[in-house]
Amino acid sequence: MRIIISMLLTLSLQLSRIPYASSSNGNACPDKPMEVDQGSPYSSVNLLMGNSLCDRVIQQDIPNAMKPVCMGATKLADEVYKGMIPRIKTLDKSIDDMLTRLATLKLNTGLPTCRVGYEYYAEDRFCYMLHSECKTWSEARQICRQEGGDLISLNDYNFKYFKDVARLKAGACNHVWVGTTDIAVEGKWNWLNGLNVSSSFWQPQQPDNWDNKEHCGDLKSPDYLLNDERCDIPLHFLCQIRKS
């Protein structure tokens, strides 16, 4: 690089003693840098050097040994310029991505904050958490209440979503307690929010109140449809905390 710069300086000094080439109409070129079309292979070096040095090399009758120096500098400048284009495009994309994320954050600033471990379910405006520990139905409900909520009450719109949550997150205890029971009135299954349980939520031939001891509802593997179960069996459980 130092050799090229030194040779360019030498070439520039030599060319300073050479008048500009005549134009096609016979007039001398004006005393200013020659304009080079941006598509020209010499455009980059002209921009970098601030004059029409290479054009003068091409147009003047100077020793051919000097021309490769300028051509090499032109090629180097063009390679540097072209090498910057992908980086500029990458930087532009990064900026666009950051602006998009910023816009998303601004849109989400109004969302409620859930307590640690809970996630926000925007459609029904509540926070939820599937607890990995296994508790009886009564113990599970007590924990949910201590955290500011209750065992989850499902509906026609969110049942499939939380069925999938149970399927993906259930651990060793396999099944997941939810907020429904018929303890108050045998055979009358209501959610803890007072709404009736849809018959489409149940597994086939459920609820069956096996041995007259199954009075609490859980999402049972492998399909995690609703099942009636003994309330004293330790299972995972889904809590919800209303935010509306």
Automatic annotation (TrEMBL):
Stretch forming the signal peptide: 1-23
Superkingdom, taxonomy of origin: Eukaryota
Keyword terms, alphabetized: Disulfide bond, Signal
Domain C-type lectin, chain residue ranges per copy: 123-240
SUPFAM superfamilies named among the record's database cross-references: C-type lectin-like
Protein name according to UniProt: C-type lectin domain-containing protein
Source organism of the structure: Sinanodonta woodiana (Chinese pond mussel)
